[in-house]
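Second opinion, please. Pick holes in both lines of this record:
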Amino acid sequence: GDDYIVAGTAGGSKTDPAWIHNVEAEPDVRVEIGTDGFDATASLVEDASERDRLWDDHVQALPWFADYPAQTGRVIPMVRIRRTA
C-alpha cells in the first residue's frame, strides 16, 4: 500500500541497529524523501507471519540481503512507516 517498509539489518551485524530502539521509544517520525517530507508513525511489525512476508518481499527486491539472517543469527526486524498527515 502506501506504507514504507524498512529492514533493520544493520549491514548484517549480529545486533539490531540502534534506530530500532529509537522507533520503539519514539514512534512519531519525520520522513524526507527527495523534496517530499511528511510526518509518520513507525512501528515494529510484531506479527511473525506478516514480518516473514515483508522480509521475503524485501529479499525479492534486494536479493543480496538473503544471507543476513544466517549471518546475523537473529530475526531481522521489519518496521512499517505510515503517514499520519
About this structure: Residues 21 and 27 are 10 Å apart (CA to CA). The chain has a mean pLDDT of 95. The helical segments are 18-25, 48-61, 68-72. The longest helix spans residues 48-61.
